[in-house]
User: What shape does this take?
Amino acid sequence: MYSEKVMDHFTNPRNVGEIEDASAVGTVGNAKCGDIMRIYFDIDENQVIQEVKFKTFGCGAAVATSSMATELVKGKTIYEAMQVTNKAVMEALDGLPPVKVHCSLLAEEAIHAALWDYCQKNGITIDGLEKPKSDIHEDEEDEEEY
Ligand code: FES
Assistant: This one.
């Protein structure tokens, strides 16, 4: 049912964790299942994503897609990171079962939420980037660990 790559990223997810004082953080929830993902970016002065970490409270497909998504955005500029769509992530994983496609959206939306956060903090805009609908970012003080 799952490709070898999906199983690999599920059993051995890359870039799990968090970044202290990250340049950008995106937290999104999946309305269908209630799963949650948070992604952290460290972005340098050339707007290149140098470091990525993620935490997912979600299913295996969400873990695998998040893991692959972090690998795909690392080293890219914030503009190039926009090209890392859920379709691109799924292709890189050799596909997902149809019922699991919505899980891959969590990774894409989290990337967009983090990019949005970065744009807000730095007063820049990225073509095609809109405020993520499922952004559940809260004030730092109110944030809960999960
Ligand atoms: Fe919730 Fe997959 S079932 S993200």
